[in-house]
Each structure stands twice: as structure tokens, then as C-alpha cells.
């Protein structure tokens, strides 16, 4: 089943993204109690798109596009539940997001991942993303790795 657009207000999607945030906090030993649960409004704006993969009514993977500038969107919220990893679901989501970015007319996609996520780095590099200097919020974060993919 291909990735499908999903409202960020879907409780299953919210649960999936909250799980992603919990996993990242564990991975990076981030005990920041100020971190709030996923806010669906962050993916509700113009140019935003949340895609999910579902099996037997359960969401297994997600990823989103969020408009940053007129010609640039950011890949956000890439996540696959641990029990479904190794099946290529992240690759499916990423490919669909790249296609959606092209169809929306974006000139490039950017993303941030962490230096403790070699599988994610490999996924992005295999899809053609190349390292760029850390941008925006991530500019001074030592654990962050930023990437870009020109679409034109």
C-alpha cells in the first residue's frame, strides 16, 4: 500500500510522532522536560503534507513536508515504528515526499537528522541528499547533520 496523505490531527499520527520524539530524546540523552508533545499545527500550514503507511489499521511509518520558503520545503517527522524497520517503509515515504515536493514546484528539499542515526543518514544519502551547513534552528547544534536535495 503506498503512502497516503494523513491529517496531522489524526490521533494515530499524533501518537506516532510522539513516539518518534520519545525515541529521539532517549537516543540523544535529552531529558528536556520542556519538550512538548507533537503539535499538529506545525504541519497544518500551506505547503505542508503528512504521509503515512498503514497496515491493518495501524500506522507504521510517517514523514512530512513543511514549506520553509517559496522554493524550499523541509522533510520532517520521518519515523518508522521499531517493529516495522528493515522493510523499506522509510524509503517509500521519502520517495513519495520527494515526488510531492517536485509536484508542488519546490526547487529544493532540506532536512535535519542527528549524528546518532546512521541508518537515517544512509537513507538520505542513497536518495541523493548531500550535506550542507546546518541551517536555521540547527545552526549551532553539534549533534545535527543537515542535508539538501535540489529538485530542479
From TrEMBL:
Q: Which Pfam families match?
A: Acetyltransf_1
User: Which PROSITE patterns does the entry mention?
Assistant: GNAT
Q: Where is the N-acetyltransferase domain?
A: 4-152
Q: Which CDD domains match?
A: NAT_SF
Q: Which keywords does the record carry?
A: Acyltransferase, Transferase
The family database entries (PANTHER family) matched by this protein are listed as:
AMINOALKYLPHOSPHONATE N-ACETYLTRANSFERASE-RELATED (PTHR43877:SF2), AMINOALKYLPHOSPHONATE N-ACETYLTRANSFERASE-RELATED-RELATED (PTHR43877)
Give the protein's recorded name.
Answer: N-acetyltransferase
Source species: Deinococcus malanensis
Amino acid at each position: 500500500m503506498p503512502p497516503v496523505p494523513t491529517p496531522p490531527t489524526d490521533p494515530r499520527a499524533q501518537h506516532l510522532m510522539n513516539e518518534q520524539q520519545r525515541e529521539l530524546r532517549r537516543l540523544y540523552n535529552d531529558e528536556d522536560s520542556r519538550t512538548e508533545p507533537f503539535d499538529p499545527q506545525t504541519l497544518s500550514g500551506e505547503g505542508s503534507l503528512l504521509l503515512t503507511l498503514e497496515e491493518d489499521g495501524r500506522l507504521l511509518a510517517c514523514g512530512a513536508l513543511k514549506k520553509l520558503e517559496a522554493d524550499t520545503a523541509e522533510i520532517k517527522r520521518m519515523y518508522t515504528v521499531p517493529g516495522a524497520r528493515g522493510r523499506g517503509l522509510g524509503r517509500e515515504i521519502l520517495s513519495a515526499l520527494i515526488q510531492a515536493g517536485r509536484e508542488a514546484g519546490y526547487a529544493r528539499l532540506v532536512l535535519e537528522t542527528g549524528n546518532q542515526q546512521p541508518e537515517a543518514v544512509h537513507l538520505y544519502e542513497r536518495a541523493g541528499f548531500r550535506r550542507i551547513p546546518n541551517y536555521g534552528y540547527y545552526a549551532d547544534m553539534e549533534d545535527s547533520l543537515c542535508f539538501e536535495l535540489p529538485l530542479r
